[in-house]
Amino acid sequence: MTTTIRERERRTGWMLIIPAMLVLAFVYAYPIARSFWLSLFTENLGTQLQPVFSGLNNYGRMIQDGRFWQTIANTMVFTISTLVLELILGMGIALVLNQAFKGRGAVRTIAIIPWALPTALIATTWAWIFNDQFGVVNDILLRLGIIDTGINWLGNPAPAMLSVIIADVWKTTSFVAILLLAGLQSISNDLYEAHSIDGASPWQSFRQITLPLLMPQILIASLFRFAQAFGIFDLIQVMTGGGPGGATETVSIYIYATVMRYLDFGYGAALVVVTFVLLVAVVALAAFFLSKLRTATTGDA
Amino acid sequence: MAKLELSHLNKTYSPKIIPVKDVSLDVDDGEFLTLLGPSGCGKSTILRLIAGLEQPTRGEIRIDGKNVTQHSPGDRNIAMVFQSYALYPHMTVYDNMASGLKLKRVSSEEIRRRIEQVSLFLGLGNLMQRKPGQLSGGQRQRVALGRALVRQPDVFLLDEPLSNLDALLREQVRAELKQIFESQNTPVVYVTHDQTEAMTLSTKVAVLSNGDLQQLDPPRRIYTHPANRFVAGFVGSPQMNLLDLKCEGKFAILGNYKIPLPGRMTPPPEITLGVRPEHVRLAEPSDTHTLQGKVILKENLGMSDLLSVKVKGAENQTLRALLPSDRPWSAEEVTLALPPDLIHWFDVETGDRLTSENLQPVY
User: What residues does each domain of chain B span?
Assistant: First the structure.
């Protein structure tokens, strides 16, 4: 029996791809499918932790669940605020790091350190920084005479949200900056020179050359940051535990509490499924724009 | 319209790195000046100084009599074509060409009119809505030219615009460039290391080496009267034969042969003889001064053969001769003649051209 080269190549191809597919199936597909299956059952203390089929009941309950909608709102506030701040600050840092100056290599390395540190450590540090009695922030504000009495940062809803946003921005801006810096470096200096000979000011060059050509990196950074911020858990869990009074409770923390504290497995699974679908929808949307953008900048279909 | 003047231009990066040393040049309307030299000679730096992308350490740049040395690039009304073309990859061909005019707040009607005119001229009409990524190298090059032309600048600057094209296309675009800029009546400064481009396009050529201006002359004269040994060796292909010879009385000694020095020259102890391979010919019976030599290498160039010849008695000297392929010669031994009026003499020490009235050929 003879096989053509093409057939043999195809067989080799399958053999090479199967291990990766198996890993994906076990690590991603199975848990998602299992969660969806679990979400169709009621399995909590009321049923003595036995699964009882209840159809879409869990989803119906979710629509009525004010705490769920509050956590969605908290997550969106956190996600959008950090995303916007990190993009703006990250762009600024990337533009500076893209300039030639003495010690640029060292500064670039230092810039990435916050992102490389363990989140729990950073969260603990920031919790102390915002501590109402001994925190640095209150101390500085008091000394400058901006406030008369210390603010209870983590004990009040709005300041607590602000605190976790600041901590996250501090930690992750450098990641965005490095991503954008890679994009900036791929833009040829000739373009800026040609543009300046055409009579463009630096601001015009930034808007007409840098921004459009950096769009793929901006979108990728947004996508990464959106997915990460939407699932934020560790930083907030350590800093506020979702408090005060649920003011900083995000979807992940709520799911954790539902499953691990209230032992409501069926409802927790339904929350996971909805969060998953939301996230996939956003990622798909971003991927779609990304491919559009590629076509727009390079002209390749 | 305008005149470009550079006076005592100097650019110093550090005491040891001086890419431009005291260069003064004028380029008039309709003149096409080529800055020619090997890489690192400072030709691109001069162009960038004119464009305002870099600031001179000393010296002045004047356009139309106005000192623009301190003006930013956008205020000099110049257009530059980059080696990489520097087309904006996210804009269509039309927007690429319109960009400079929009920044100068030219009315959109005027922009449309100018682009239509230039695109007709360059044959870009059907490419207007394409992105640079969808164009061939030759088309990109033409868009880059178009972007410069629609600006209607006071000075055109071109930085090795042909070097990214393949050989065949380069020849075709070179001819187009000549036509385009002959119709412009604007000073053009063109940078290249390719002597063919310099010879065919320019009305005058500035040969540069190590930041120094070696010679500024029309291309023909650069070829016939190289100012020094560097220019002689750099311009012309195949390269000019440059042989360091001892002198005896009124003769330079090449192996067993004596080559007469021109009349009034006081013979130095040593002298550099320069003769182009294409001027070396097979000896004829009427020739009085001939050289015999052994052929060590024959390179077929198509319409002619390039021979490397060891002259009898001077085994360490090689003379190259470009001979028509159809002429017969023995494969091993040739007798050659050097036309006395086509021999150049250079000072061994300084490399400067040594002249005397008898020496200068008349064209």
Answer: 4-233, 239-346
- Please give the residue range of the domain that contains residue A129: 66-298
* Closest by Cβ to B74, choosing from A188, A190, A198: A198
Q: What is the CATH number of the domain that holds A234?
A: 1.10.3720.10
Q: List the Cα angle B131/B53/B171 in 5-degree steps.
A: 55
- Give contacts of A292 with chain B, Cβ < 8 Å: none
Which residues of chain A are modeled with pLDDT < 70?
1-2, 294-301
Task: Determine whether the interchain pair A193/B74 forms a contact, defined as Cβ–Cβ distance below 8 Å.
Answer: no
Asked if the C-beta of A296 comes within 8 angstroms of chain B's C-beta atoms, the answer is: yes
Contact B74 A190 (CB under 8 A): no
CATH architecture label of B239-346: Beta Barrel (2.40)
Contact B74 A299 (CB under 8 A): no
What does the mean pLDDT of chain B come to? 86
User: Is the four-CA dihedral B244, B248, B251, B253 of positive or negative sign?
Assistant: negative
The predicted pLDDT at position B1 comes to 60
Total domains present in chain A: 2
User: Which tens digit of pLDDT belongs to each residue from B318-332?
Assistant: 899 998 877 666 667
Contacts of A189 (CB under 8 A, 6+ apart): none
Residues B3-19: tens digit of each pLDDT: 898 989 888 888 888 88
Residues A3 and A88 occupy one common structural domain: no
User: Same domain for A183 and A258?
Assistant: yes
Kindly tell me the sign of the dihedral angle through the C-alpha atoms of B170, B176, B182, B183: negative
Residue of A nearest to B147 (CA): A198
Whether A112 and A157 map to the same domain: the answer is yes
Contact B124, B146 (CB under 8 A): yes
Q: Is residue A40 part of a domain?
A: no
Q: Is the pLDDT of residue B158 over 60?
A: yes
Is B82 in Cβ contact with A297 (below 8 Å)? no
User: In terms of domains, do A262 and A119 share one?
Assistant: yes
Does A88 lie in the same domain as A222? yes
For domain B4-233, give the CATH number. Answer: 3.40.50.300
* pLDDT level of residue B96 (50, 70, 90 thresholds): very high
The pTM of the full predicted model, rounded to 2 decimals, is 0.80
Mutate to test the interface with B, among A191, A197, A298 (most CBs of B within 10 A): A197
Among A200, A209, A298, beta carbon nearest to B74: A200
Q: Do B73 and A209 touch (CB under 8 A)?
A: no
Is the CB of residue A191 less than 8 Å away from at least one CB of chain B? yes
Residue A249 and residue A112 in one domain:
yes
